[in-house]
# Entry
Amino acid sequence: MSLGNPALLTLTEVAEAIASKKLSSRDATQACLDRIARAQPKLNAFMAIEPESALAAADAADTALAKGERKGPLHGVPLAHKDMYYETGFAVTCGSKIRRDFVATTTSTALQRLKDAGQVRLGTLQMSEFAYGPTGHNAHYGAVRNPWGLDHITGGSSSGSGSAVAARLTFAALGSDTGGSIRMPAHFCGVTGLKTTVGLVSRAGAMPLSHSLDTVGPLARTAEDCALLTGLMAGADPADPTASHRPVPDYLAATRQPLQGLSIGIPKSFYVDDLDPEVARVLGDTKSALAREGVRIVEVELPDQRQLSAAAQLVLAVEAAGFHGQWMRERPQDYGPQVLMRLQNALAIPAVTYLEAMRWRGVALAEFVAAVAGVDAVLAPVSPVPAPTITESDVGNSLNAEAVIQRLTRFTRPINYLGLPSLALPCGFSNAGLPIGLQLIGRPFDEATLLRIGAGWQRATDFHRQCPEL
# Structure
C-alpha cells in the first residue's frame, strides 16, 4: 500500500496504516484538516471544525500506540459525523435554528461505540434541517454543495456526510436514513452508503425524525469501510429497546467472499420506469459487468411499489409531526418554511389512515420477501436522475421544485417502509461528470450479503476510487 496523501486512503487503509505505525494519527488528521480548510468555503459541508482538539486527540492516540495501547480498530482515525448524534458536552444543532444552542448531556450509542474503537473527532457535518429534506438545502445554514459540481445538490438529509466523504475531508461519516437520506447522498456524491435494517444499530441518542422508519448507518468510500463501521455499531443496546438482540455477523469476512454463484434480481417495473437515459445506461452496464463476474442476473416481479412509497411518506409525515408538535405550537417562526409546511400538512392526516398504513407493513414485507426468494439481492437505481442543480430543486426559487423533489425519492422510500437493508454503490458517471449510484436491496438483517456483493463490485471496478478535484 502506497500512502501518498493520507487523506486519499480508505477508512480501512488508514486504520491499518496507523495500527502498523506506517502513518501517525497526527499526519492523517492534519491531512484531513488541510483539505477541510481548502474545501469548506466551497462546499459548506461542516457544521463545526475542531482542529485544535482533533490534533490533541491524534497526538494522544499516537502516544498510546507507542506504549502498546490500542483502543480498537479505529484507533487514531479522524472522523466527522452528521450533526444529529448527541455527544456529551457538545452542541448538536440537528441542522436547525431551534437546537442551535442545544448541548447534549448524553452520547449516542452508535457514536460511543465508534469512540470506544478509537476514532478522533474532527467536528460535525451539515445536514438538512431536522433531517427532513432530501436535497441538502438548509434555510438556516445554507445548502451543502456537491464536490463533483458545485451548482448541484448533494442529496439529503445527510448532505454534509456525502459531500465530505466524497471530497476526502473525512474517511467516513455517520448518516441516517428515514426516506433515503444515506443512499441519495451516496448516489449524488459518488460514495458508498449503507441503509441498515431497522433495529440493527441502536438509535439511542440520535435525533429522532420518524420512530418506526429511522435507521443509523455509514457513508464511506468502500463497502469494506461500511462493513467495518457497521460491525462496530450493530448489536443490542439497553438504551434502545428496539435494537435487535441477534448476533452480529462478521461483515468484514463477508466482504472477502467472491461474487461467483450469487444471483441478483432486476425489477421488471417501477425501479426501471421513467429513468434518465444516463441512469438507464449505468444500470445496463452494471448488469453486464456483474454477469461477467459470475453473477446470475434474473428479472423479478415485485409487489406494487407505488403503494409502499405513498405509505412511507404518510408514516414519516405523521411521526415527524408528532415529535415536533410542541415546537410547532411554540416556535413556528424558527423553522425553515419548507420544513414547517411539511410538518403542518401532516396534522391533517387522520389517525385511522396512519394506523392502516402501519398495520399493512407486515403484510407488505412478507409479500416483498416472497417475491425475491429466488435471488440474493435486488439491484435498482437509487434515484431516476443524476444530481439536479441547487436552484431547480429549491422550493423557494423554482416553480417545479416540488415535482423534482418527489421524483428524487421515489426509489428509496419503499425500502424504508419495509425496514429492509440497502447498500448504495458508485456505478458510473453522467456525461456531465456527475456520479450515478445504484442500490442493492436485501432481506431483513442480511447486510452481509449486500456488503459481499458491494466489495466484489468494487474489486472489479474503480468508480469508488475516483475523487473530485477540490
Observations:
- The CA atoms of residues 260 and 292 lie 10 Å apart.
